[in-house]
Write a structure and sequence with these properties.
33% of the residues lie in helices and 25% in strands. The chain is of the alpha/beta class. It folds into 2 domains: 66 residues, Beta Barrel (Ribosomal Protein L25, Chain P); 171 residues, Alpha/beta knot, CATH 3.40.1280.10. Helix 2 packs parallel to helix 3. The longest helix has 21 residues. It is an enzyme of class 2 (transferase). Its main location: cytoplasm. It is found in: Cytoplasm.
């Protein structure tokens, strides 16, 4: 059943109007007719099975029927801070980490980031990444679309550490000395409701000064095992481990 994210809180009325951009997909792409059902999710995370009751040239009207009580979200909020990688790797990270339950993705400019975003490019990039996140959230039947946050510098990211209850830095140098227990230990002590920030470097990893800066702001470091993972692989490994620890 097709799922649509509505950018308002749950209304008091049982009938809602759907306009652009969902109208085009609902009517012209999916070719829904009066009597068909879909799922609508409001930004306060309430979701309902809804029935299409009327169609005009600009709007479709849906009647909210059954409220869905099942939750599919992780019990902790996970933000992935990714040093800007090359090519379309960030798009892959956004799509797959959304399916795996990420709460937000925070791009940042690391010392070894080759890619640079100017103000104009950043706006377009965020818009495209947000669309990818929404489509992945719809596909995976989530009730939360991860936020693609505004680009930060390394110093700004370190300063933002106070927003989170736990910080972890994926450090390939730790992998070289086979320090692979820190992440496992961290996940086992994080309580439900925590806000976890995991920081990943771009191709080439993080500099020692960057790692030191994050640690000064409360982060712990560790690896995801003895192998060195690509910048687009490490976030997905981290999310899969979280799902295993908290959901399976």
């Amino acid at each position: 059943m097709q799922r649509y994210f509505i950018e308002t809180s749950t209304p008091n009325e049982p009938t809602i109007a759907i306009g652009a951009p969902h109208y085009h997909h609902l009517i012209n792409v999916m070719r829904h007719e009066v009597g068909d059902e879909c799922i609508v999710v409001f930004n306060d995370r309430n979701s309902f099975i809804a029935t299409l009751v009327t169609i005009t040239k600009a709007e479709a009207h849906l009647q909210l029927k059954t409220k869905l009580e099942k939750t599919v979200e992780l019990p902790i909020e996970v933000t992935l801070a990714c040093g800007l990688p090359k090519g379309d790797k960030l798009e892959l990270i956004v799509q797959k980490s959304t399916e795996l339950g990420a709460f937000a993705i925070q791009p940042y400019v690391a010392e070894r980031s080759i890619v640079k975003w100017d103000d104009k490019k950043q706006g377009k990039k965020r818009q495209r990444l947000q669309k990818i996140a929404q489509e992945a959230a719809e596909q995976s039947h989530r009730i939360q679309v991860p936020e693609i946050k505004a680009l930060l510098t390394t110093k700004q990211l370190a300063a933002a550490a106070t927003q989170y209850t736990h910080l972890f830095v994926a450090d390939e140098e730790e992998a070289k000395i086979n320090e692979n227990q820190a992440y496992k230990a961290l996940l086992r002590k994080i309580p439900v409701g925590s806000r976890l920030l995991i920081i990943f470097g771009p191709e080439g990893g993080l500099s020692r000064s960057e790692v030191d800066l994050f640690c000064q702001n409360g982060a712990i470091t560790g690896s995801f095992g003895p192998r060195i993972l690509r910048t687009e692989t490490a976030p997905l490994y981290a999310m899969a481990a979280i799902s295993y620890e908290f959901e399976l």
